[in-house]
């Protein structure tokens, strides 16, 4: 009985320390360093099958460049994503392992610096073979995030084209998942969302400030669709951030750093 009693006391003590870390230490840490106290902690990291892992290694330079430790984290997150969100094929499209892995790994690349990445703003992935008619917007779409349906919808033809063409700054997966992060940053109070929103307020000045907006538009690096509204601006710059990072960093070093901080992108994760 005494052993059980001491174990219970130890357990309560650990919970108390974790509560202190969460409520007191982490907010102070975030204020000083502008990032969460920790990102990755998995007692039993999930594994992908050999074939699934080969798909990631083949398709994602992001994954190939990660350190061995971070590859384990990335694999766990992709497996967790696939387990949490069902993939629904429309118009008789067959959902394959490759489709699941590429869609999931795109999202994980974007959110790798965030502790809370499996968010509840969406509950399913809907995939059409090509452009589809959106009943919510009464027009044909290549992809969308539908908050009411809690769904992310993709035309696979356009998703895979954006994934395979890596130098045109057009990536449907990154674009639509960026909309979700934007909504999450506005609505949630988890540490990663708070940091996203704080840095978002810096990034969005490039859209709100008439002079900065005009300068960006005239220089032509970001495509015109970026200036449609705030949501498209954030989505487009995140496409550029992942597809042509060196060019982005050279031309707009301050904006690049703000975007990097917004998603807690850490270059130390890579070899």
TrEMBL record:
Keywords: Membrane, Transmembrane, Transmembrane helix. GO terms for molecular function: aminopeptidase activity. Gene3D superfamilies: Glucose-regulated metallo-peptidase M90, N-terminal domain. The chain crosses the membrane at residues 6-25. GO terms for cellular component: cytosol. Pfam families: Peptidase_M90. This is Zinc-dependent peptidase. The lineage of its organism: Bacteria, Pseudomonadati, Bacteroidota, Flavobacteriia, Flavobacteriales.
């Amino acid at each position: 009985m005494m052993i059980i009693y001491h174990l219970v006391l130890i357990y309560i003590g650990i919970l108390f320390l974790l509560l202190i870390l969460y409520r007191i230490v982490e907010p102070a840490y975030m204020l000083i360093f502008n990032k969460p106290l920790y990102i990755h902690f998995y007692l039993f990291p999930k594994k992908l099958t050999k074939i699934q892992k080969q798909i990631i290694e083949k398709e994602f330079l992001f994954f190939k460049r990660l350190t061995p430790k971070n590859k384990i984290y990335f694999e766990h997150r992709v497996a967790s994503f696939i387990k949490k969100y069902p993939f629904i094929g429309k118009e008789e499209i067959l959902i394959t392992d490759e489709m699941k892995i590429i869609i999931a790994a795109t999202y994980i690349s974007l959110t790798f610096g965030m502790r809370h990445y499996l968010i509840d703003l969406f509950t399913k992935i809907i995939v059409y073979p090509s452009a589809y008619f959106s009943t919510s917007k009464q027009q044909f779409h290549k992809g969308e995030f539908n908050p009411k349906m809690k769904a992310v919808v993709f035309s696979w033809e356009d998703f895979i084209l954006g994934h395979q063409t890596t130098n045109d700054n057009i990536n449907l997966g990154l674009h639509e998942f960026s909309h979700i992060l934007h909504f999450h940053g506005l609505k949630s109070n988890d540490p990663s969302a708070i940091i996203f929103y704080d840095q978002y307020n810096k990034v969005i000045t490039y859209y709100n400030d008439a002079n900065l907006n005009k300068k960006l538009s005239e220089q032509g690096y970001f495509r015109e669709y970026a200036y449609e509204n705030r949501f498209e601006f954030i989505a487009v710059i995140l496409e550029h951030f992942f597809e042509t990072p060196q060019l982005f960093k050279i031309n707009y070093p301050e904006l690049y750093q703000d975007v990097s901080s917004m998603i807690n992108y850490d270059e130390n994760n890579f070899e």
